[in-house]
Design a protein that fits this description.
Layout (H helix, E strand, L loop, with lengths): L5 H12 L3 H10 L4 H9 L18 H13 L8 H5 L1 H7 L2 H13 L4 E5 L15 E4 L5 E8 L9 E7 L13 E7 H4 L4 E6 L7 E11 L4 E2 L5 H37 L1 E2 L2 E2 L4 H29 L5 H26 L10 H9 L8 H12 L7
Parallel strand pairs: 1-4
Antiparallel strand pairs: 2-3, 3-7, 4-5, 5-8, 6-7, 9-10
Bound molecules: flavin-adenine dinucleotide.
Amino acid sequence: MTDPYADIREAVSRLCADFPGEYWRRLDREREYPTDFVRALTGHGWLSVLIPEEYGGSGLPISAAAAILEEIHKSGGNGAACHAQMYTMGLVLRHGSDAQKQRYLPGVATGELRLQAFGVTEPTSGTDTLALRTTAMKDGDGGYVINGQKIWTSRAEHSDLMLVLARTTPRDKVEKRTDGLSVFIVDMREHLGKGLTVRPIRTMINHATTEVFFDDLHVPADALVGEEGKGFRYILTGMNSERILIAAECIGDARWFIKKATDYANERNVFGGPIGKNQGIQFPIAESFAETEAADLMVKQAASLYDAGEDCGPQANMAKYLAGEASWKAADMCMQTFGGFAFAEEFDVERKFREARLYRIAPISTNLILSYLAEHVLGLPRSY
Ligand SMILES: Cc1cc2nc3c(=O)[nH]c(=O)nc-3n(C[C@H](O)[C@H](O)[C@H](O)COP(=O)(O)OP(=O)(O)OC[C@H]3O[C@@H](n4cnc5c(N)ncnc54)[C@H](O)[C@@H]3O)c2cc1C
């Protein structure tokens, strides 16, 4: 099969060559944001490929965006600092008013406006999104006043705009259990320090994630995206694209680990020969390769269904699950192949190992994917 995105892959890979392991290593050590890398991606238009041409993007399908993110990860880099700039705007594009699209999308396309923070998760509700406690109540002037707290809101310090999911109707007053939540677009530049507080969380990876506090934050009526009360459905429709794109990053990670391990197994000599001549070293690499190629087929299938406008919920979830498992297994295999040197920062294996682990937990954990497949696809009884 010919790859329709070979040119894109080649161009992204060339760009990534300017940001080698030592660049990512230094940022990881300092927990710094990859500003230069994000600027370079933005300058070449790679973060606006999903935005329709009428708003200044290149209007490419999700398969193209997946190819870009896969290449970034395959090069040893990390797209998590900016991948959400590609897809968070999708909610505004699908459900926003014409005025909101005109106001925000052209700026997001040029990178002048950063829309890459989405506050859904809260400390007390976790994965149970319908139990979230942040509220947005009508303020009497047509606007809303937001109160509550989000956790793990990534890139909030590097975003101008933030989408927030908040409860607008109490849980016991809604007809359907999925009603009553709404999405707001908050201009963080106006509100920071005035009802909006962002606190970074230091984590085991360099991820720029934060907790966000809303204290009587007043937003105008036109901050509401789409219809009041339909926010939960809106975020569900955006999940398939996020699953596919993160799965593509996992495929890139897995390919990086496989290449790294193969090269090392060929070069590292002990007991009078390369360690790669031992089947105990060869087989885990070959197994990872087979699993990654299989997972990639599922990512491609999910992406082509998505691009054809067809339902791809099961495939997008399976892609995320299989790719997340494949990259994690490849990470562990690479650690084992490197032996003691895997722990030395200079090989980047330990950094990528830490980074790859995230995707079995966020943006959706493997358990919740399996539960979706079991209950919604296979028809097993619901556990919650
Ligand atoms: C680095 C990082 C970045 C993130 N970025 C964002 C972001 O930008 N925006 C945002 O909104 N969120 C973000 N998240 C949150 C992320 O989506 C959640 O951490 C993830 O969905 C898991 O939710 P939780 O941590 O609340 O786990 P919990 O819901 O507390 O669950 C804990 C464990 O129990 C399991 N579990 C829970 N319920 C069930 C069940 N019914 N059946 C089986 N197992 C179950 C879960 O799978 C998980 O393994 C981020 C998280 C991290 C760590």
